Amino acid sequence: MSAQTLTYWRDRTLYVNASSRCSNSCVFCVRNFSDGVYGFGLRMSEDPSPDELEAAVLEKAAEGFREVAIVGFGEPLLNLDGVLRVLRVVKKRLELPTRMNSNGQGLLLYPDRDVPRELAKAGLDEIQVSLNAPDAETYAKLCRPEFGAQTFASVIDFVKRCSKLMETKISVVELPGLDIEACRQIADRLGVGFRVRQFKGPRQTLADIRQLLSS
């Protein structure tokens, strides 16, 4: 594999870039107008292997990080075996807390695997699932999932399963016309945490989203 950014960092958090692919094509995604974050270029031509991810994480083991976050430029669960390897290595060798951001489509990506249980067993302490909509119709408009109309319900199911095994939050990006309170009520009903994230992108994108949600 050619040189690619498999880890990056900010403050005392070590981030792991497990994949730059995604099963969504969100209209608000940073990937639409940037090649990375925090000054790191994060686009990759292919997913790293579990061995490559392990080596990249261990290379930073002595640099005093307080946590490891599996938050890359795509959906980390598309490289599930790589993610599981990182979690095991971090727990066994680094003994640091772990968290991950995901679109929550693990049940659709791997229908024959119990992804929440595998993540918990490997050592994931916290997962934040990007919901970004209060209903399936809005989700389809904003996130444009590869799996179609079934996706929203599956994400909710994934959140329910994760909440029994680890600290779980759902997040939404603050967008014009999006019913944030309705999203918050979903989190309350599921008994999970809730986070509102700021949109960081062009103003024209916000105008386009407002028009999209009003149609």
Describe this structure in words.
By secondary structure, this protein is an alpha/beta fold. It has one domain: TIM Barrel (Alpha-Beta Barrel). It is 38% helix and 18% strand. The strands form 2 sheets. Strands 1-2-5-6-7-8-9 form a 7-stranded mixed beta sheet. A two-stranded antiparallel ribbon has the order 3-4. Helix 2 runs parallel beside helix 4 (115-122). It is globular. The model has no long low-confidence stretch (mean pLDDT 95).
Largest β sheet strand count, sense and barrel closure: 7 strands, mixed
Question: Share of helix among residues?
Answer: 25-40%
User: What is the number of independent domains?
Assistant: 1
Unreliable segments (pLDDT under 50, ≥5 consecutive)?
Answer: none
CATH class membership: Alpha Beta
What's the CATH architecture?
Alpha-Beta Barrel
Compute the average pLDDT: 95
Residue share in β-strands: 15-25%
Per DSSP E runs of 2 or more residues, the count of β-strands stands at 9
The rounded Rg comes to 17 Å
Largest beta sheet: what is the strand line-up? 1-2-5-6-7-8-9
SSE order in H/E notation?
A: EEEEHEHEHHEHHEHEH
Overall 3D geometry? globular
First and last CA, distance:
44 Å
Features:
seven-stranded mixed sheet; 215 residues; TIM Barrel
